[in-house]
Amino acid sequence: MHSPERTPRAIWVLIIALASLQPIVHAWIAFFPPEGTVPTGLAIPDSALFIESMDMFSTGFASPYATCRSDGGGQAMAYYSVPHLWLYGALGMAHRLMPLPQFLFYGLANGLGALFYLYVIYRFLRIVVPAVANRAFTLFALGGGPGGLLYLLTGALGMHGQPGFESWFFRFAVYDLMEGPHFNPTLYFPRLYYTLSLGCCLGGLGALIRRYRDPATRLPVGWMVAIALGSFLDARYGVFVGGLLLLYLLCAPSRDFAATRSILTAYGIPSVLGLTVAWLLLRTNPAVLENHLVVGSMAVWFSPFLLVVALPLATSLKPVWRTCTANKNQFLQVTVPVLLGYLLAYGVGYVLYQIYYGNLLAGRDGSVAANVSDWALLGAVVGGVWGMRRVLQGHREASDTHPVDWMGMWFLAYAALSLSGFGQGWFLRFGPQRLQVFLWLPLCVMCAQGLLALRPRLQTTITATLLCFGITSIAVAHACFQGPLGRRHGEGIWPQLHAEIMAQEDETLLESLGAGTVLAPAPASDVVVRRRGNPVVFGVGSFNLTDLPYAELRAVADTFFSEATSDGKRQDLVRDWCVEWVYAPHTWPVHPDTLASLERATWLEPIAHVGRGGVFRVRELGAKR
Question: What are the φ/ψ torsions at residue 56 (nearest 5 degrees)?
């Protein structure tokens, strides 16, 4: 018999296999790019931030995204004010001790972060819900939505090359296949600071819950240090996990004041310490704060959310309803109906809103949260009244709180917040979409618990379906979205997601660039930084690595390369931003009319024209009129 404290061999195999995906994809990109392409030096578009930050100490905090209008000049510590960039700086120092190419080392680090995170999640489940830990972890790691299967099916039907496919299929891909702060953990494995921050904070939470249940256990000092680190690396996640701790204490069957004070102190002190240091660092660059509060303001989109969670949520209805109607805990008796009422009202409001604007089939969800959230509060009020009536009436069938009840409360509370844009969009500035990474774990726990109440054959069918969905989606996400499968000569759908390779035509164009500041659209501008080292006016790296607002810099590039922009306006932009080179890429082409206008411009000297792209040197311009 294995010790209950040991991690089963099968779980280790699963963890190691999933953690290996990142190094494998990076090696594939580096050594086996598709025909007619070359690696760019990036993996995902945001790699421009992470890989550049690996050199922050060796370059003395230089940033190629600082412009001639930056107050800090070309070098300033304020350009690296985002706390998690210092993680990559430390990673860069470690890389210099190892004989491994930087890109491969970066992929290996992502894999090690994934391994740490998955292991922490499994141990967390063994502490909180040991009866269903293995099943819940398997669903968490390998479950998913139908996006992968649908992608393969539409590909087999020849739909990928059809006009409008990207727009139509977006809702099926965005939370199931595209990298980012989404449900399936493999979708955020390329972000080391996510896995480390989540692992540190959730691991600390699990250790403190163990301490809360058994005060005789030692105070987890090591995990308290980890909580401080996790809160520093990503302040949002430190706060969100703190919210989970509060929910746990409110859902706990007993209220021991001394134990409650101890656990709150043990999480609160290191968390506040990490948050304080992060805040002091962020304050050194006000533009970065603006970027995070304005540019990153997004809620979870409702219809893609439902597509991913529909089957596990349907399986979880019985545990959720039990929590709502048959629990002695009065907090749960009231709060669960409030959240259910809000979510149901939100769903009704979503349907009515989309019908009114004719978007129900198109699924344009971006503006829904700001317009529906406040109205959905009426549903929360109705649910609260219903819950209060049940509390006042009392109910004999009430039972003790089950560990899954906390998970149900966790899912409902964070789902409601993640979808919301209270105050006609005011709440969006806090980036509620980031809560999405917390939804899959409690949903998988509830699903695992719900499966136990079903007939064995139905259990097997639902489990097999979820695993088929998830494994297919993981494979498609890594091969076709993070990886370059099917992108011969750099061609393929969703080119804006693919920064890992470029057509050989762009390699030729890049070779014609000389020294000086380059204006190019993203992600081509980030490729210039990685491959040539030139400073650029705008790129994905501009989100953090400069002291100017990202929206302003993006507007410069968008305006310059718009086919509607006049020649005079382009000259003004070149003067204002000290541009010396203009790069129109082949892999991510600008509008043909724009390229033709650049070729006719007398103030630009054509240096190279290959395929759909070109490189131009700026001639000396006169004074601005």
Answer: -60, -35
Q: What integer pLDDT is reported at residue 400 of this predicted model? A: 55
| Spatial CB neighbours of 569, under 8 Å, sequence gap ≥ 6 | 559
pLDDT at site 3: 46
Residue ranges, the chain, pLDDT below 70? 1-4, 254-255, 296, 323-327, 394-402, 621-625
Residue carrying structure tokens 């210099």: 96
- CA 223 to chain CA centroid, Å, is 24
Tokens of 182: 């989404």
- For residue 471, give Cα distances in angstroms to 205, 255, 403: 29, 42, 28
- Rounded CA-CA distance 92/200 in Å is 21
Q: Quote the pLDDT of residue 161.
A: 85
What is the distance between the alpha carbons of residues 618 and 516, in angstroms, rounded to a whole number?
10
The pLDDT value recorded for residue 620 is 77
Three-point CA angle 164, 168, 173, nearest 5°: 125
Block residue for tokens 């190892």: 98
Which residues, including other chains, have CB under 8 Å from residue 329's CB and lie 6 or more apart? 251, 253, 401, 405
Q: Which residue type does 544 have?
A: N
Sign of the CA dihedral with 94 first, then 99, 102, and 104 last: negative
Specify burial of residue 511 (Cβ count, 10 A radius: 0-12, 13-18, 19+). Answer: exposed
Rounded distance between C-alpha atoms, residue 105 and residue 95, angstroms: 7
Do 98 and 66 form a contact (C-beta atoms < 8 A)? Answer: no
Residue 330 CA to residue 146 CA, distance in Å, equals 37
Q: Using CA atoms of 330, 336, 342, 348 in order, give the dihedral in degrees to the nearest 10.
A: -130
In this structure, which amino acid lies at residue 347?
Answer: G
- How far apart (Å, rounded) are the C-alpha atoms in residues 594 and 610? 15
503 beta partners: 37
Nearest to 282 by CA among 93, 548, 554, 544: 544
* Type of residue found at 364: R
pLDDT confidence of residue 325: 66
- The tokens of 24 are what? 């494998």
Q: What are phi and psi for residue 6, nearest 5 degrees?
A: -80, 145
Peptide bond into 270 cis (omega under 30): no
- DSSP one-letter string for 186-201: GGGTT-HHHHHHHHHH
- How far is residue 232 from each of residues 86, 242, 524, 588, measured CA to CA in Å? 10, 13, 31, 36
Summarised one tens digit per residue, pLDDT across range 384-437 is 898 888 778 765 555 555 678 889 899 999 999 999 998 888 888 888 999 999
- Amino acid (one-letter) located at 367: S
Q: Which amino acid is at 373?
A: S
Residue 617 · residue 515 · CB < 8 Å: no
Q: Which two tokens stand for residue 482?
A: 């993070």
Which residues are within 8 A (CB) of 623 and not within 5 positions of it... i.e. 6 or more apart? none
Token pair belonging to 622? 């006169």
Tell me the C-alpha distance between 223 and 218, whole Å: 11
